[in-house]
Write a structure and sequence with these properties.
Largest interface: A-B, 35 and 34 residues
Largest sheet of chain A: none
Structural class of chain A: mainly alpha
Shape of chain A: elongated
Oligomer: homodimer
Number of domains of chain A: 1
């Protein structure tokens, strides 16, 4: 029974990793479709996302079965409830990929607004954060996970910069408005992907240390409850 | 023990309802701040959201304790895992309120771009969906919950309409670009609130019927697994 449970947890982990890999791939593919003005590639993203949706339902179902049949405690319980949340986060990453693919598709019909400002850089950063968060998840590596959370600011600041640049394009040349708008939306989707990667990393810390770090809960606790800070 | 557990579940439900009420209030307040160009009101939203963040952590903690100590089965287990997700959804609603308050604040410094197109209407719809989803949650009312899910399309279509109108403002008068951009972002935040209300409603169906309706899983299952459709 014990060994069976261990194997079930390993399978859950593998399944989440496969889903994470697909979610990351969808984001990179959608930005690639945007960069290469490739409508066929953008269309692939919609089909890829259907697979992610299906995986989400399967993983949820597996988590519930494990909770019901194994009645896990302590770290195993944290692992399974965190898996429920990571599952949800990864599904949302897929949705952001779909949004980006939608923008890519609409933009193939119009002349390219180049350069794509810092969007490819944002995609690389957000994709990298997600990839590393999943690596940290596999290794229960809270230290790496904390480092990932701190990188979220970098993506936020790129997003603000992209926003400012694109608004100034629009003001200078109103003909660029529709295209610049699409790119602003793409940048926001990438910023959300980085947020979701941060959520995953926060869950990794929670699994490893039973410590909540989201909303800066650590500082909140130390300020309010212990009079430090 | 059994009675104690029932009481714990009731308390969890009450806590989620309080959080839901606060999340709904934050959205309405942020749109009110936008409409009335009221910076003080917008600033209140940031403080309100801190309370929601704290509630999220408390509710998560309560759910984990219930899972560990009570080892619930069937509908109780579905209720608690759904509570974990609803908790997360409501916290995100709060974040969207914060985003809207940020736009409201930046817009107080500029002449009003009026009318606010269909934004107040979107806020009313999205807030109403959230309110009713929480009502359905209290009553385990799957029928109402399904009806809420269908209303999401209405908000999506308003969002597209707002987008088109505001882009045409920008094209006609580039001086409106920054302001119109903010309003487009507000509309997208409201559209996301409606999505999150839909998620809550989907969880209500799951609790009541043990049936997954997100991603149109019912149709997927009937097409793929049973050869119908």
């Amino acid at each position: 029974m014990e060994r069976h449970f261990e194997r079930e947890l390993e399978e859950l982990k593998d399944q989440l990793l496969r889903m994470g890999g697909r979610a990351e791939a969808i984001v990179l593919k959608s930005v690639d479709a945007l960069r290469r003005r490739d409508a066929a590639l953008a269309n692939e993203v919609f089909a890829d996302d259907k697979v992610i949706d299906r995986l989400e339902i399967d993983i949820d179902d597996r988590c519930l079965r494990l909770l019901a049949l194994q009645q896990p405690m302590a770290r195993d319980l944290r692992f399974i409830t965190a898996a429920l949340k990571i599952n949800n986060d990864l599904e949302r990453v897929g949705d952001h990929g779909v949004n980006i693919a939608g923008s890519a598709l609409r933009l193939t019909e119009q002349p390219l607004l180049k350069p794509l400002v810092d969007i490819p850089r944002m995609a690389e950063l957000a994709g990298g954060m997600l990839h590393e968060a999943l690596d940290a998840f596999v290794r229960h590596d809270a230290e790496t996970a904390r480092r990932i959370c701190r990188r979220d600011d970098e993506v936020d600041s790129l997003n603000r910069q992209v926003f400012r640049e694109l608004v100034s394009y629009m003001v200078e040349d109103p003909q660029t408005i529709t295209r610049a708008m699409e790119l602003i939306l793409v940048a926001r989707n990438l910023e959300r992907v980085a947020d979701l990667a941060t959520n995953v990393a926060e869950e990794v810390v929670f699994i490893a240390e039973a410590r909540v770090i989201k909303h800066h809960a650590e500082e909140l606790a130390s300020d309010e409850d212990f009079g430090r800070g």
